[in-house]
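Why does this matter for the project? Reviewers at the last site visit asked to see concrete outputs rather than summary tables. In response, this paragraph embeds two records directly. Each consists of the residue sequence and, immediately after it, the corresponding structure tokens. Nothing has been edited or filtered.
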Amino acid sequence: MTVIRQDDLIDSVADALQFISYYHPLDFVKAVNEAYQREQNPAAKDAMAQILINSRMCAEGHRPICQDTGIVTVFLKIGMDVQWDGSMSVADMVNEGVRRAYTNPDNILRASILEDPAGARKNTKDNTPAVIHMEVVKGDTLDVQVAAKGGGSENKSKMAMLNPSDSVVDWVVKTVPTMGAGWCPPGMLGIGIGGTAEKAAVMAKEVLMDPVDIHELRERGPSNRVEELRLEIMEAVNKLGIGAQGLGGLTTVVDVKIKDYPTHAASLPVVMIPNCAATRHAHFVLDGSGPSLQTPPNIDDWPDITWEVSDKVRRVNLDTVTREEAGQWQPGDTLLLSGKMLTGRDVAHKKMQELIESGEGLPPGVDLKGRFIYYVGPVDPVRDEVMGPAGPTTATRMDKFTDFILEHTGLLGMIGKAERGPTGIAAIKKHKAVYLMAVGGAAYLVSKAITSARVVAFPEMGMEAIYEFEVKDMPVSVAVDVNGVSVHEIGPKIWQAKIEEQAINVV
């Protein structure tokens, strides 16, 4: 009979969550590097370079890969011969581990979890509770898988109740383009097939814990229908030409993971959940001998990649930029931004609209005329940092506010992650504004461009507050120009055509 001490589980969970906040799984790093070496689209290659550079910086600096440090999901397989030494429930032990990890003063992680989700949406301040799945199995050990899943990728999860005669491959190929780029490709697709709707969803999430091994599968060949599907879907999705960050290119996914379960004769449930460029998960086993702590990888296993500033890169002074200057920018252009910008996400945009409509007006420090706003909810700084990891959030969430804000404030431009939707693009074109894209999954790299930061409005909102950042050479791409032309619409189409016409190998 194995006795698991309460503190051993708490310490192991806390250690795993800190570990995965700054260490990518090496199999994922290797897969992205292989895609980087193979990539032919300069914009996509540049995005992957930033992701890989950011990954190494986080591994060296022990700071989060992404500012969105995720909602914690835990899978527990509890041996039938395990006994517990403690006063807390198993769920409470896990949540105490989460609490300690996210409030660790040496590496503060952003608390993103809100209670009363359909009402007040109040932040719990410590990222609890986790989503916990428990299963009692044979044996005398506790097997634990821990993941921290970002909201941008989680929000792109898709579910369908297909007819038994329908093609899963066809559904995936039709569905992936509807996900846009907010899930920060290149990443992985977790697919659950069978069971019931909720069973398929849990399987899709759990299978994302598996290592990247699609190339080994291709070399040895599939041995069952699930492995055949993995290869078919991998090739079909990459032929779509969506590419890194949705800019167009050869690699959209680095692996496809599938788990299935027997289902009703009349049913074919399918759930697809993407993992983003900030893939974070860890595994450990408790056998009663003490906590199980993660082993740091060798930094030399990371590729040594540098980001070069080419002659085509435009340097932009945010303090003096004009609409005429912005009107010259073309979709896909790379810019280096220096100067002052404001920040704001969903809650801040809603608050600004309410203040303007009420006649009260914006707070004194929030003058948006001719300026840029960055969609970001940063991590708090530690030690000598000006600001913690500060990568972009999904821009489409601000689309419903865009026309109003542009019309009433004179805002010149916005910076965020991934594409804009039709409503956002129409507003940008109408007001001759611009939308710039920063790379999702490069949050620590972005933070190094921030030279000063101060809260100028709504401090009670925490990471949703409006900051003023001063930046030096912050890299972005022109995603939507003043004419409403979107690189996320034209890029994938160009690269899908190239892949088909030139029979380019995408896997």
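We now turn to the second protein, recorded in exactly the same manner.
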Amino acid sequence: MKPGDHIKTDRRDALKLARCLRNQEVTPIYIPSIDDEAVRDYLRMVCDFKEDLRRNKQRFVHFLNRLGKKYDEGDYWTIKYRSWLKKLKLDQNIHQEVFNEYFTAVEESELKIERMTEKIEEIAAKERYNEKVAKLKCFKGIDTLTALTFVAEIGDFRRF
């Protein structure tokens, strides 16, 4: 750094910016379209609902644990676990009501997410996103939601 370079003025900033532009060291920013912004909002909403589902399940399991109703036959939220839940009867009427409300909240959240996932598949199939989403889905662990999120959030991959 030369002496005097640390002084900041509009003139020096303009000269530095002009040099960077001349040397093509500046890349343009990506401004998402209105459609991209809407898709981004939808995807963020889906993530919010998935988090709500996780919390609903967690609350339900904690409630059952407080009552001493522990499931020891495998993983939670499997078909076997749900079958166990449907057979479970609680002694107190109020506890049964709490159980029913928690279980209903979980099921409703799952149905919402299922509908939203179908909508995500529709969006990803649109010509605007189809090719990029398909390429990203080739990577292990990347499903439609993740791929569409990358495409909508990043926009133009040539920036990288």
